[in-house]
């Protein structure tokens, strides 16, 4: 039994819904049966739909506490290649205040009640008892992860978990409209072949970029995953023919950052999509 599977079973036994993450801290992709959400199950919907897939599809909506599901079939194979364990905090009745840097931590120490704290790569997770809607970018470097979201399991941390305070709930209500930051430029993949773009008309590309912007803009939750999947879709269609320009990528990054994503998250999502497609 892998270490990740062992951890997942321990968490599930304590009532914490879990799911495996692959490289890049992203969920496993939908199985063939569920490709393009043909089953109707989508992680950014309150109702995952009619999907009864036994595999770890649909991001947070796949999280489960069922040990038979976790340790058998497609799930068992997923754990063998997983890079981390994730959990659905809202499903466990928890809310995470994700503090991404030292300034965010200093703000939390001044304005939020002390609670159980878990160190992360760049900051801290503050865990509160109680669930609420997930919201990104409630303050600079501060995200709220609870319902319809997933978080990487990083251990139990330290301190006593406090009840979810009104101060955290108020952050979601009073979230300021995000500024449109300057997108971080990236090197566009070189065309796979020379000559005329196989899409033949700029209108096809323009329509695709506009639809991608709309998909990101309309994401109501699970923004990290929505951005990654949109980048993946754009690159799978346009990444090899060389028709993407820095202006196109800037438009996608701007849409993502307007939804609260940081430039780092945009870059990570773009790089992960390129890696998955072998670009």
TL;DR?
This protein has 279 residues and is of the alpha+beta class. The protein has helices spanning 3-13, 67-70, 73-81, 102-111, 166-173, 202-217, 223-238, 246-258, 263-277, and strands spanning 18-22, 26-27, 84-87, 94-99, 116-119, 124-129, 135-139, 142-145, 151-152, 162-163.
Mind explaining what this structure looks like?
The chain has 279 residues and is an alpha+beta fold. It is built from nine helices and ten strands. Strands 4, 5, 6, 7, 8 and 10 form a six-stranded mixed β-sheet that branches. The chain is globular.
In helices, the fraction of residues equals 25-40%
Counting DSSP E segments of at least 2 residues, the number of strands comes to 10
| Portion in strands | 5-15%
Mean pLDDT: 81
Largest sheet: 6 strands, mixed
Structural class: alpha+beta
What Rg, in angstroms, do the CA atoms define? 19 Å
The tally of helices reads 9
Q: Detail the poorly predicted runs.
A: 42-49, 177-195
Distance, first to last CA: 34 Å
The general outline is: globular
Give the helices and strands as they follow along the chain: HEEHHEEHEEEEEEHHHHH
